[in-house]
Write a structure and sequence with these properties.
Blueprint: H1 2-14, H2 27-38, H3 61-65, H4 73-77, H5 92-97, E1 103-104, E2 108-109, H6 120-131
Antiparallel strand pairs: 1-2
Length: about 140
Amino acid sequence: MRFLAFVSLLVVGCGPADPCPTHTQTFSQIRQGIFKTSCNFSSCHSASANPQGGLDLETDPYAALLGVMPAKVGAAMRGWKRVTPGSEATSFLYQKLVLPVNNDPQLGLRMPNTGQTLDGDSIAQIQCWIHRGAPKD
């Protein structure tokens, strides 16, 4: 009986396993590998005069994402931020990547708006970066 109680304490004390053990990309790696190739080319989210949704992912993407209220009213009304550290569920960036429809009436278009979705690995990199608290690097 004592052994069972000891094992129970060990299991409870360990906490949940890391859901992202293989995705440890830094923000710089995500910026280079995903944002530059899928988001801020052709002036969608570049430093152009009018980036889509007011989101410039070229100049200072970290500052443009972390804790910033999205321009889309449907997301703002839900209390979401562009990126909420530790919460994919309230991070508009992640939600825009996994929208179940191409055009949600409240949340807008699934991103990237190129006719192709990001591959699962790229989405997982962003999800895990947010889950880990969205560190700058």
